[in-house]
Amino acid sequence: MTKKLKKRLQRILAAAVLFAAGMLMPHSIPYAHAVLLIAAYLLVGYDVLLKAVRNIRRGKIFDENFLMTIATFGAFGLGDFDEAAAVMLFYQIGEFFQTYAINRSRKSISDLMDIRPDYANLRREDGSVETVDPEEVRVGDVILIKAGERVPLDAVVIDGHSALDTSALTGESLPRDVACGDAILSGCINQNGLLTARVTKEFGESTVSKVLDLVENASSKKSTSENFISKFAKYYTPTVVFAALALAVIPPLFGSDFATCFKGALIFLVISCPCALVISIPLSFFGGIGGAAKRGVLVKGSNYLEALAQADTIVFDKTGTLTRGVFEVEQLCPSEGTAPEELLMLAACAESYSSHPIALSLRKAYGRDIDESRVTDVSEIAGKGLSARVEGRLVYAGNRRLMDQIGCPCPEAPDYATVVYVACDGRFMGYILLGDVLKEDSVQAIRELKNVGIRQTVMLTGDNKAAGERVGSMLGLDQIYTQLLPGDKVDKVEALLAAQKDGAKLAFVGDGINDAPVLARADIGIAMGGLGSDAAIEAADIVIMTDEPSKIATAIRIARKTLGIAKQNTVFALTVKLCVMVLGAFGKANMWAAVFADVGVAFLAILNSLRALNTEKL
Amino acid sequence: MKKTFKLEDLDCANCAAAMERGINALDGVNSATVNFMGMKLILDADDARFEEILKAAQKVADKYDTTIVR
Prior knowledge:
heterodimer; A: 618 residues; alpha+beta; Rossmann fold; 4 domains; seven-stranded mixed sheet; B: 70 residues; 33% strand
C-alpha cells in the first residue's frame, strides 16, 4: 500500500469513529449528534468538496465529486444528517478499495511484464567490465551474462555455454541449451554458465523491447465492447442526471411527496458515475492480453482478442506451421535380405559429399560420422541422383528414373513422400521415404481446436495432392487444398471468407515468412514461431512465440475467458445500477444501496477482471 | 511524431476515457491513447507543433488532476 493510500485509510477510520460516536450519541444532548456527524462528513469528504468546487470553475460538471456533493447536500437539506455522513463515508471507503484494487492489478500486470533487463555487463576493450544501462550498448559490443542474469540485448554467444530459461518470452518451461555461435534473445534468463556474447541489435530493436512495446500498446486497438462502453459512458452520466432532475421536479407537480422524490433524485445522482463499466472492460482485456503474453502468445490489440473469441474457421499453412518444414527420414523400406541399417548407411555414404536437403537429412538419420575415405568416385547424374563407390561397392542412390536407367527392377513406392531408391552392385537394396514431418503437437492442436468448438479446420499447401491429403488425414483436418501457388492462397482465403456466416471470424495461421498477404487478408492473422523473427511479429495480429500450433487453442480459450469476464462485468454493473435506480424512483432504495451500486460494483468488477490475468487454468 | 509519456495521478478510469476524448479533439492531434492500466499517454501529433500540442494536452489533463511527465 502506498503512503498516500495509507493516509486515506487513516482518515476514513477516524471519520468512521466520529460517525459511530455521532450515531450512538443520545439525542437528549442538543446538537452533539449533528456536530459529530458533520465533523465526520467534513473529515472524510473535504477533498471531494474541494475538487467539486475546482472542477466547476474549470467548467467540468457531471463530475463524480460534484455529483456526490450535490447528493450529500441534498440529504443534509432533508435533515438526514446520518445518511449524508454515511453516504460520504461509504463512498470514500468504496473509492479506497477501488484504488487499492487498481494498484494491485497494475502491479500484477507490471510484474507479469517484468522482463525488461535493468543493466548490461559491458566489456571494454581493455578487458574491464562495467555495468551500464542496456540502452547505451551498441551493436558489436561484447557483453557478459552471468548465471541468474537476464540477457539484456539480442546477441550471439562467442564464448561459454549455458541453459537459457526462455519462459518469459515463450511460456515454455524447458530450458534451451546454447553454446558458442548460437543467437540468444533478450529477456531470457541465463541459468548456469557464464556467457560472453556479441550484441547484434540495439536495445530498442531487441526482442524484449519489441515484445513489451507490443503488449503495452495493445490497448490502443480497442475492441467493439470497449468502444461501446466509452460511447455509452459519454451519454450515460448526463442522461441519469437529467432523469434525476426530472424525478425531483415532475412527480411533485402531480401531487407526489416532494421529499421522497427528491431522495430518489439524489440516488440517481450517486449512481450516475459510469466508472465500474469504464474501468472493468479495458481492464479485462488488458489482463487477457497480459495473461496470453505469459503463455507465449502476443496479441496486438483487444480487437484481435475479441475476434479470436468469435473465430469458427482456422486456416493453416502446412509447411512450417503444422509440419517442421525440414525433410526427415520417415521410413526405411529395405528389399528382402537387406538390413535397414545397411540401406541407410549406403545412402548416407553415397550422399556424403552432397549439400542437398535430402542428403543432409539422410546423414542426420544415419547419425554417425562418415569416414570420407570410404567413399570414392562420386558422380552426379543430373535430375536422377548420383553414383559412388562405398568401400569399393558401386552404389546408386536417386529417383525411380535412375533405377530404370541402370536397369534395376524395383517395386512401386508410395507417391505421398520423397523417395530415394538405392541399388548396390546391380542389386536393388530398397527405398527410403523422406517427408516433411508433423510437429509433435499438431495432432493435439487440431483435436483441441475441435474441442473448443471450431467449426472447420482447413489446410492450404503448395505440395502435391497425395502428400497434402496424407498430412490432412493424419491430422483430421476438415478441408485440404493442395498444389496452391502463393497467390492462390489469398484467393482461397477470400473464398472461405465469403462463405463465412455473419459474425464468425476466420483466422489464418502461417509462419510469417512468405504469407504476409494472407495474414493481412484474414480476419485474424496468426504467425507461428515469432521468437526472433521480426517478419512474423510485423505481419501478424497475433504472434505465437513458440513453434507449437497447440497454442492456438490456448489463445482461443484465453480470448473467450476474457470476453466472458468483460460481459459479466457489463451485465452485472448495468443490472445493479438499473435495479437501484428503479427502486430509488419508487422510494424503495436508500442512499447506501446507491453507494454500493456505484463504488461497490466498481470494486467487484475490478476484482472479477483480475481473473483474466490468470491463464494457467482455462 | 509519435511519443509515449508517463502519466501521474491517473486514478479514475472514466477520467482517462474523458481525457483521451479531450486530447483527441485538440487541433493537430492525429491520435491520442490514454492507457489507464499502464498509466501512459501515446500521442501522435504534428511534428512542427508538437510542443504546443503537448501543452494543450496538459491543459486537458489538468482537468483530471493528472500530470503528463516529460
